[in-house]
Task: structure prediction
Amino acid sequence: MRILIVEDEPQLARHVRAALIRHGHAAEVEADGVRALQVAVRDQPDLVLLDINLPSMDGFEVLARLRQAKCAAMVLMLTARGEVSDRIKGLKSGADDYLAKPFAIDELIARVATLARRGGAPLSGSSLHLDDLHLNVPQRHVIRGGRTLALSPREFDLLQVMMQEPGRVFARTELRDRVWQGEPDFDVRIIDMFITRLRKKIDADSERALIHTVRNVGYTLRLPS
Ligand code: CA
Result:
């Protein structure tokens, strides 16, 4: 994942950055609240590790403004141990998770891995729309053309990933990493099979196909051109 570390203690920030990089993530550090907000909106990282006490703007304010700016990055708040009110405030403001400081680096890496498995699932309560296809994410409910569709959990996850970025072409390997992460010996041809199943459910009864094959690259979800 692409991770923005917002932390004003340089030693801790360096330590966290090095650990994340060792675990295969891309990670940058910002120490200042206002600057971190600008960078997050500009770069749209997958995850923001957000300290609360920061120079120029605190973590809660950064989080609120990120959400106002429709930044979909997952946010892991770094809170003071024992400060339950901080955690509740953070989660209410749209944080995806929190971690109490001081934390063991392994604990942080485990939390980040859990968030990565969620694959950038949008904030709870959100829904996704393209043409007459509607996904209610928290309820995992899919409607096309007024009809409710029965999707398996993996079919739903696959559709959700593609629907978050209509028009973007997803390589099979990326879809594998987003939906089937951690499954050993996964054959990317399984994705072709899932796409076929999704097409039967989503597109077969509609005049406008939304799932498109991009030859030698992968798949995209968009209105027909
Ligand atoms: Ca701090």
Q: What stands out?
A: The CA atoms of residues 168 and 217 lie 11 Å apart.
